[in-house]
C-alpha cells in the first residue's frame, strides 16, 4: 500500500508515520538542495566577492517570503481541523481565502521591496565592490517573491489534501528547472549573478503555477479552489496560528546578519564566506526536521479536531523518538562528510576550506537536539496554539542565538561564534520540553 492510500484518520504506527512524512522530508531536502545550487555555481564560476554579495542580500527576500510559510502552516492547521470535523466545504473556503489573500499580499510587498532595495543593500553592509552584485541579484530574485510564497503555501496544503506525493513532484520539477538553468545560464552562457537569479525565479514560478492549475481543476483531491467571500476573521486566525513560522524565518535572517557582523570583526571576508557555506549545508540537514514537522502536522491537527486522544498521545511519543534518532544519525553523517561538503563550495581556496571544515565540525553537534526544538514548535502550531509555538521559535532562533553569538566570543574569541548555535539549541531544548510537559494534560497527548 503506497502512502497515497494513507488517510489522516488512520492509526499511525512508526512505519506508517515515517511513510506519510517521507514525501515532505524529501521535498524539503530537495528545496534546500536546489536553493544551494545558486551558491555552488556563483562561488565556483563567478567568484568570492559575488558569492559574498549574494549571501549578504539573501536574508532580505527570505524575510519577506516568510509570509508564505506563515499562511501555509497557519492556514493548513485550520483546514485540517475542518476536515477532521467532517466539514469539507468550510475546509475548501478557508483554503481558497488564504491562497487569494497571500497572492495579493505578495504582489504588494514585492513592489515595496523593489523600491527600497538599494537602501537595504547599504544597510546590510554592501561595500562598493559588492553593491552592483547585490542590487542585480536582488532586483531579479524579488520578482519571484509571490510565486515563492505561493510555492511555500501549497507545500503545506498538498499534505493537508492527502497528496504529499504531488507536492514532492511539483518541488522536484521546480528544483530540476533551477539546476538545469543554473548550469546553462551561469556555467555555459556565463551570465554570472543575473543568470543565477533568473534560474531561481523561473523555478519558483514552476513551483507556483502547477499547484494553481491542480487545485483549480476538478480532481481526486479533497481540496479545491472555490468562489468565496474573504473571511477576515479566519485570515487573522491563520496569521496568529502561523506566526511561529513567520518569526522563525525572520529571526533566522536577522541572526544571519548579526553573525556576519561578528564574523567581519573577528575574521573578515573569509569568516563571512565560511558562515555562508555552513548555512547552505545546514539547509539540507534542518530540512529533514522541518519536512518531518510539516508532514506530520496535519495528522496531529486532524486527530486533535476529531478528539482522538489516544492517537494524539501515540503520535507525540513516536515523534519525540524519531527526532532523537534523526538527530544523532545526522550529527554523525554531517561530521563525517564535513570536509567534502565544504569542498563543494570553496575547494579553490585552501585556507578558506580548512576554516569552513573546522567551523562546520563544531556546528554539527547542534543537530543532535535541533529536531526536538523544531518539532516542539510545529506540534503546538498543529494543536492551534500559535502562542507557545511562537515563543519556542522566537527564543530558539532569535533570543538565545543573539545572546550566545555576542557572549561566547567574549570568552572564546572566534571559536565562540561557531559554538553559539550549540548554546542556543541547548537552552531551547529546556524550554521545549518544559512547554510539552506543562500542556500535556490540557491537550491530552
What features would you describe in this structure?
There is one protein chain. The protein has 445 residues and is mainly alpha-helical. The chain has one domain (9-443). It is built from 17 helices and no strands. Helix 3 (59-84) packs antiparallel against helix 4 (88-123), helix 6 (145-160) packs across helix 8 (192-216) and helix 10 packs across helix 15 (386-412). The radius of gyration is 21 Å and the shape is globular. The two termini are 28 Å apart.
The percent of residues in helical segments reads over 70%
**In percent terms, what proportion of residues is strand?**
under 5%
How many domains?
Answer: 1
Helix count, DSSP H or I runs of 4 or more residues: 17
Largest sheet descriptor: none
Silhouette:
globular
Helix-strand blueprint:
Layout: H1 14-46, H2 48-57, H3 59-84, H4 88-123, H5 131-143, H6 145-160, H7 164-188, H8 192-216, H9 232-241, H10 243-305, H11 309-336, H12 338-346, H13 350-363, H14 367-382, H15 386-412, H16 414-438, H17 440-443
Summed up:
The model has no long low-confidence stretch (mean pLDDT 90).
List keywords for this structure.
445 residues, mainly alpha
